[in-house]
Design goal:
The protein is 36% helix and 25% strand. With 367 residues, the chain is an alpha/beta fold. The radius of gyration is 30 Å and the shape is elongated. The two termini are 57 Å apart. The structure holds flavin mononucleotide (FMN). Flavin mononucleotide binds next to loops. The site of flavin mononucleotide (FMN) has 13 residues, from loops.
Length: 367
């Protein structure tokens, strides 16, 4: 087993012993994207990229893929904000973000343009954010001084993107750079091998450790507990108004065509037409008594901006008097789980499930 795995396992053992089994199961080979950082015609960048890819592909502790920025021709950054905050509109940028997200670590193969990383690489880095974070990165630089100054600047950028850059990089410089430009195969330059191997070892270690750590984190799906619940309260207010008027059309107005409606006794009604027919029959037999049913939103969560999950309690009293009469026929409370989805700005009910509210059974002493 490669040394990187031993080190990663040791770290995992120390940090997460109680959850070791789950984390070990998640420790598959890290996927490494090798990004060619220049795009101009006649670029040299292909050679070092192909060389480090061939070295990486011979190892059994990582999976490597070459990623060419020429395949992602993005404009100069032209979005309202980083995609950390606002989803990008540009379709190539979206495709780029999906590609970046596939990897656990990266090797940036970079030239030095005026002592800095090439603008096209910086632009590509700016076009993603969450996809880079908490992942490892290594650099292969080339140029008169091996791209050393570009690589040092690049590491600062990687840190801002919450990547962990390896200490060791590869620098193809001076005579080696000139010889390779003239056609020498980089694989024949033996003194490049030790730094390349050390860099790959470090990259596997960090990307495996960070992959295990990322997979060990249980996500909180809701973006913020303080998120505005008004889509849910507005939906429920409509239900309230509809039930007060015993108006089935209004009650079902925001049920999606493919809504799923679970009854308390196990039947699942599939689709608007089916549930509307049932509700129309039920409502036809009800004399409207405003306030006889009262809906209360108890929990509303938004696992994504366009999906709401809500628990809504219905406190129902006898229909004749409108007064609570516990235990009387027609008196019941129930709890509904609603899943709402926003489509083109309108919130629709995707699924609903209600059960009788019988919390009293939990209060009974055990026999
Ligand atoms: C605009 C520009 C600026 C450059 N500045 C530097 C530099 O600061 N340091 C350096 O070592 N090489 C510099 N070079 C030379 C590059 O190292 C060399 O052209 C290399 O092949 C560029 O990588 P590429 O062929 O993948 O585009 C520069 C080249 C260009 C085009």
């Amino acid at each position: 087993m490669p040394i990187g795995y031993h080190l990663a396992n040791t770290l995992v053992l120390r940090l997460h012993e109680p959850r070791l089994a789950a984390i070990m199961a998640a420790m598959t080979k890290p996927r490494i994207g090798i990004i060619i950082g220049t795009t101009r015609e006649g670029r040299f960048g292909d050679k070092p990229a192909r060389w480090i890819f061939d070295m990486a592909a011979r190892r059994d502790d990582l999976e490597a893929e070459l990623v060419d920025l020429r395949d992602f021709p993005m404009p100069f950054f032209d979005e309202v904000a980083s995609n950390a905050w606002v989803p990008s509109k540009n379709e190539v940028a979206q495709r780029w973000q999906r590609k970046v997200a596939e990897f656990d670590g990266y090797i940036f193969v970079t030239a030095e343009y005026n002592r800095a990383p090439p603008g096209v690489l910086k632009n590509a880095l700016d076009y993603a954010y969450p996809e880079w974070t908490r992942k490892a990165a290594a650099c292969v630089g080339y140029g008169g001084l091996g791209g050393a100054r570009a690589v040092e600047q690049l590491r600062l950028i990687l840190v801002e993107l919450q990547m962990a850059p390896t200490r060791t990089g590869v620098h193809i410089q001076g005579a080696d750079f000139m010889a390779a430009k003239k056609g020498q195969n980089l694989a024949e330059i033996a003194h490049l091998q030790p730094s390349a191997n050390a860099m790959l070892d470090e990259l596997v270690w960090w990307s495996s450790a960070l992959k295990a750590a990322r997979e060990g984190v249980r996500p909180a799906l809701a973006e913020s507990s303080s998120r505005d619940a008004s889509p849910v309260t507005a939906f429920v207010a409509e239900l309230q108004a509809a039930i007060d008027a015993a108006d089935a059309d209004r009650f079902n107005a925001r049920f999606a065509a493919d809504v799923l409606w679970g009854s308390p006794f196990g039947a699942v009604i599939d689709g608007y037409d089916a549930i509307h027919a049932i509700h129309a029959r039920m409502f036809a037999g009800i004399k409207p008594v405003p306030g006889a049913s009262r809906y209360v939103v108890e929990h509303a969560r938004f696992p994504t901006p366009d999906v709401a999950v809500a628990y809504v309690r219905r406190l129902a009293t006898t229909r004749e008097s409108g007064e609570p009469e516990p235990g009387a026929p027609g008196t019941f409370d129930e709890l509904a789980l609603f899943v709402l989805v926003r489509r083109d700005g309108t919130w629709w009910l995707a699924a609903g499930q209600h059960v009788p509210d019988r919390r009293d059974v939990y209060a009974r002493p055990r026999s």
